[in-house]
Amino acid sequence: MAITPVKDMVMAAKAAITSLSTEQAAAEVAAGRAVFVDIRDVRELERDGRLPGAIHAPRGMLEFWVDPASPYHKEALATDKRLVLVCAGAWRSALATKTLQDMGMDNVAEMEGGFSAWKAEGRPVD
């Protein structure tokens, strides 16, 4: 049985979502129009650091945390601001952004290059 390669899934997701450059994402957050949502695993946060002020919503819980009907709902994610999803390299964030769009959210985007690009550009890390 053949499966769809994850790279193909990521490329399809990226064709259907909004991707912001690190500069665009930082500007939206600084202007108060967006919040960063870091979907990396807690071990990645501990090892590599995190974006200052980012909400941590692990990828495995994201859909449950954004759904107001879920017993796991997190109020921090119930906002009119744009949620800018961030992972290590913008693959998980692309798939997660597409999933949230499929759930009916229109205030969601991903950050191109992910945390790796952010850090490589010398941007602040906690």
Explain this structure to me?
With 126 residues, the chain is of the alpha/beta class. It has a single domain (6-120), classed as Rhodanese-like domain (Oxidized Rhodanese, domain 1, 3-Layer(aba) Sandwich), CATH 3.40.250. 40% of the residues lie in helices and 14% in strands. It contains 6 helices and 5 strands; from the N terminus they run H-E-H-E-H-E-H-E-H-E-H. The protein has helices at 6-16, 22-30, 42-48, 62-66, 92-102, 114-120; strands at residues 19-20, 34-38, 55-56, 82-86, 108-111. It has a 5-stranded parallel sheet with strand order 1-5-4-2-3. Strand 2, helix 3 (42-48) and strand 3 (55-56) form a beta-alpha-beta unit. Helix 1 (6-16) packs across helix 5 (92-102). It starts with 5 loop residues before the first helix and ends in a 6-residue tail after the last helix. One of its GO terms (molecular function) is thiosulfate-cyanide sulfurtransferase activity. InterPro entries: Rhodanese-like_dom, Rhodanese-like_dom_sf.
Features:
126 residues; alpha/beta; Oxidized Rhodanese, domain 1; 5-stranded parallel β-sheet; 5 strands; 14% strand
CATH homologous superfamily identity: Rhodanese-like domain
| Overall number of domains | 1
Query: In the CATH hierarchy, what is the architecture at level 2?
Result: 3-Layer(aba) Sandwich
Largest sheet, if any?
5 strands, parallel
Strand order of the largest sheet: 1-5-4-2-3
Low-confidence parts: none
Q: How many beta-strand segments?
A: 5
Shape: globular
CATH topology: Oxidized Rhodanese, domain 1
Question: What is the SS-derived class?
Answer: alpha/beta
Cα-atom Rg, whole angstroms? 14 Å
How much of the sequence lies in strands comes to 5-15%
Number of helices: 6
Q: Would you list the SSEs in sequence order as H and E?
A: HEHEHEHEHEH
N/C terminus separation: 44 Å
Helix percent reads 25-40%
